């Protein structure tokens, strides 16, 4: 039997019933990678010998009566996570030989849950792009169209899942890095509530793997079904044992509703800074039709919605203030000169990026205070709604564009060119206030490319958008293998 595109939940059932062994699943996954990954380039650091050993251990453990959440299931891991014995480079050529001594906390959790790690998946340089390419490992192609990007920065993981290279993967998200690749490749991803899952050990090379807090950034699950997202999130979530885990245990509240007809959903398909392309708008409307047909209450406007323009500017400043932390002094001085030349009434995204790059600590605190006001606004909105449905980016996957200066790249939206980085504003809707967001497939574009949308939920109520994703998967269908 071909197990390649089965969900992790289906594989769990089959493993428990003795219908298949972990060794068989692992060998099948490895064989598929060896046959097909030359064209996709998703797996940048294979770890097949240890994977086969782990699969044998999993089968022996099951024979002894053990049953862990992911026991014997083949998975992949984003390159940016430390795995002892494999390079962690973040795509940086100067670190191509960096070998961490310890596993990241999330890798340790995968192993403890019984997962079989096949290897690492490709990323962009420094994780700072909407595409996945670097000098060390080359370009990851979209499984649906090799001339297009798989997304970034978890693009290797999304491409691996869509190609049948393992049942699950773990990635990270700062500017849509889980959600955008899922949208581009037709799979599922979940950006957890900020700080829900510890990030220790997913750090740039030579950076100590400490249990520090990260502004905006999260780690999270990727899968080929909504139920699998929930399964993997349960493995990943919970405080770091070196800090809050000393005293705290995590208990996520259940989903607000179990029936589609009980959900209250606010729909957004227009953003003040960038238009929504026709293919993505059609995907949003396809999900809206399913919600309405299922009896959900759907609204397209609410006075409780925090201002999207102000939110986008705030998100952009916070995002780029962190992106330049290691810039050389001379570059910082040049940026400060450019920012000083901006008009005081320039409220463009480009100005926000530049101001963010030179943000003082005092200004950052003020920006953070404004963020708290937005967070409170979202709390109020979620007293009236259970989820917000909106795009992830304005377009399906776009053609590879490796211009060395991303500021010179342009995104084509229905024949009109827009600045490349402007597409990040939809990701920021959930990221800036730290809300959970689940990316789900929502059909195909006229060219046959996957289109996804995101379901944003209340903070620390991750099970609510995940449950809504499950119910929608039943109505509109989910992952389909590339043709």
From TrEMBL:
Q: Which domain of life is it from?
A: Bacteria
Q: Where is each Amidase domain found? A: 24-464
InterPro entries registered for this protein in UniProt: Amidase_CS, Amidase_dom, AS_sf, FAAH2
Protein name as catalogued = Amidase
Give the organism the record lists.
Kitasatospora nipponensis
């Amino acid at each position: 039997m071909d197990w390649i595109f089965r969900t992790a939940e289906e594989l769990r059932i089959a493993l428990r019933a003795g219908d298949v062994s972990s060794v068989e699943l692992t060998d099948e996954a490895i064989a598929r990678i060896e046959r097909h990954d030359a064209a996709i380039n998703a797996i940048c650091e294979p770890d097949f010998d240890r994977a086969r050993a782990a699969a044998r251990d999993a089968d022996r453990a099951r024979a002894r009566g053990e049953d862990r959440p992911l026991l014997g299931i083949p998975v992949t891991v984003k390159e940016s996570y430390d795995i002892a014995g494999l390079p962690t480079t973040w795509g940086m050529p100067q670190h191509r030989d960096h070998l961490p001594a310890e596993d990241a906390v999330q890798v340790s959790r995968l192993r403890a849950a019984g997962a079989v790690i096949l290897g690492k998946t490709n990323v962009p340089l420094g994780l700072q792009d909407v595409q996945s390419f670097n000098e060390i490992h080359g370009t990851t192609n979209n499984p649906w169209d090799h001339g297009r990007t798989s997304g970034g920065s978890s693009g290797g993981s999304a491409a691996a899942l869509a190609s049948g290279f393992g049942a699950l993967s773990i990635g990270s998200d700062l500017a849509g890095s889980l959600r955008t690749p899922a949208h581009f490749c037709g799979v599922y991803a979940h950006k957890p509530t900020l700080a829900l899952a510890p990030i220790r050990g997913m750090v740039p090379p030579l950076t100590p793997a400490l249990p520090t807090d990260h502004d905006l950034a999260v780690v999270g699950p990727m899968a080929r079904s909504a139920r699998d997202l929930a399964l993997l999130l349960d493995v990943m979530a919970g405080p770091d044992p070196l800090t809050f885990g000393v005293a705290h245990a995590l208990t996520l509240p259940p989903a607000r509703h179990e029936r589609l007809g009980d959900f209250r959903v606010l729909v957004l398909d227009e953003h003040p800074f960038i238009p929504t392309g026709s293919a993505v708008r059609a995907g949003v409307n396809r999900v809206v039709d399913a919600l309405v047909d299922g009896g959900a209450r759907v609204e397209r406007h609410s006075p409780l919605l925090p201002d999207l323009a102000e939110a986008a500017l705030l998100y952009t400043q916070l995002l780029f203030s962190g992106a330049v932390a290691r810039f050389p002094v001379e570059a910082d001085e040049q940026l400060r000169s450019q920012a000083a030349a901006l008009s005081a009434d320039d409220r463009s995204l480009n100005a926000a990026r530049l101001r963010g790059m030179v943000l003082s600590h005092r200004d950052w605190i003020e920006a953070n205070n404004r963020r708290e006001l937005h967070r409170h606004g979202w709390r109020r909105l979620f007293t009236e709604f259970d989820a917000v449905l909106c795009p992830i980016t304005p377009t399906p996957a776009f053609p590879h564009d490796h211009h060395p200066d991303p500021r010179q790249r342009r995104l084509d939206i229905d024949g009109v060119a827009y600045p490349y980085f402007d597409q990040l504003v939809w990701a920021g809707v959930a990221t800036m206030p730290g809300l959970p967001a689940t990316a789900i497939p929502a059909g195909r574009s006229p060219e046959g490319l996957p289109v996804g949308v995101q379901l944003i939920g209340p903070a620390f109520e991750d099970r609510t958008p995940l449950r809504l994703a499950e119910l929608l998967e039943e109505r509109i269908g989910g992952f389909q293998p590339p043709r």
